[in-house]
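Fill in residues.
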């Protein structure tokens, strides 16, 4: 049976100092709800992508995403930049 609990992951990326975004939070159930609530409280854009959160959840905390996930994460970054009016 597949796990139906809510899952969440948070990435952090600083172009100046990181080669790729890194996982800074991940969890499911109540922890996922808390990650999402904190993001909302701090005005962090949220994008639902079940496949990406599944893949990111397999990574260790503070691990940079692997090249296989670059395209999916780039799509999230474009989403965020568009929301914020950045290019």
């Amino acid at each position: 049976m597949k796990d139906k609990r809510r899952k969440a992951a948070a990435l952090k990326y600083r172009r100046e100092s990181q080669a790729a975004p890194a996982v800074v939070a991940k969890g499911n159930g109540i922890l996922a709800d808390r990650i999402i609530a904190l993001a909302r409280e701090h005005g962090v854009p949220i994008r639902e992508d079940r496949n990406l959160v599944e893949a990111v959840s397999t990574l260790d905390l503070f691990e940079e995403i692997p090249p296989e996930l670059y395209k999916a994460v780039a799509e999230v970054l474009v989403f965020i930049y568009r929301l914020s009016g950045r290019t």
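Residues 45 and 80 are 6 Å apart (CA to CA).
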